[in-house]
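Example with several molecule types.
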Amino acid sequence: MRIAVLGTGVVGRTLAAGLHDLGHDVVMGTRDPASTLARDDEALTRWRAEHDAVGLLTFADAASGSDLVVNATSGAATLDVLDRAGEALDGRVLLDVSNPLDFSRGFPPTLFVADTDSLAEQAQAAHPRARVVKALNTMTADLMVRPGLLPEGTTVFVSGDDPDAKEVVTGLLHSLGHTDVLDLGGLATARGTEMYLGLWVRAMGALGTPLFNIRVVR
Amino acid sequence: MRIAVLGTGVVGRTLAAGLHDLGHDVVMGTRDPASTLARDDEALTRWRAEHDAVGLLTFADAASGSDLVVNATSGAATLDVLDRAGEALDGRVLLDVSNPLDFSRGFPPTLFVADTDSLAEQAQAAHPRARVVKALNTMTADLMVRPGLLPEGTTVFVSGDDPDAKEVVTGLLHSLGHTDVLDLGGLATARGTEMYLGLWVRAMGALGTPLFNIRVVR
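Resulting structure tokens for the full complex:
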């Protein structure tokens, strides 16, 4: 599958590498490739040298050549980034792994949208022809692509209004090693997984590591 | 231990029965025992006949004779109920299992406090001498007292500012069969477990049963 990962931060890099390792044709999207490449960002420079098969394009160019777009930008940047991708999102599956975290009050972050709305729904409303699926936002990036780092299987949630798009994402999740994919229902159920971040950040604080995930036992 | 369970609803009855079965000296608190007894409530009448060792007192009388008070009332009623218990809460461990659910917009409920505050903190602020511990609010009542109903061990979270009170609650949780008790830290971390309800209600909808719980795999 041709996959565009929007965002060159830790989440974007981890997902791009993991999806490339699975054999997908992966490109990364960024605001301005020339300025991203010129940036004095040692981690990104090293990552690019190690993953030279993963091209770097504008958000719109990355999305327009893809079958599936992954929003791996920060929650605060998400709506602006998707606006820049614009019509290139139309008809495409948009896997949104972001969270509406607001760090302006320090740690733990609060949520800038919750309960009666979600960032996933805001993205869908801004791009009605995109086929938004929320998933993977309930775990740290390493576990998104390598759930086997944990000693037991854990659960990944999917939310979306387009059944075919959810099926595409579910298949991708299985191929990444996620064995328990729980379909919560329509995209509005993303409110639940985004609100879970309130617990996630505090559990991370108590455990002293982001390398944990939940398993829904039933 | 002498335990006062505030609330005669399903959660209160389930906790009172479970704690009584463990050998504790349990009373239930209600607004007005005479009117509760006079009420045409078949489920409560049957429950009382089956658990005649569990007395029914006012909130204040129940709390004043106890070592530990459990708030098992609805989130909407919690602050009023605790006000009625009043000074009887002073110095006592107050285990708060409630959630700030607002059903006024239908299902799924929203939260009437979240993110920058929690119901547990509001209870503590209203009763500074109570020793509030938040726990058990992340699972259905049956699992609070019988976690073994599930095929695998799951996690219960505790939050509180009083280490000794948390130790009392942790001991009680172990005695109920909870093997993985995760101390999140101070009472403000109850924001996390209360916000988790946003995911819990949607997972319940997807699974079609409240008989599930999460295990934190790390």
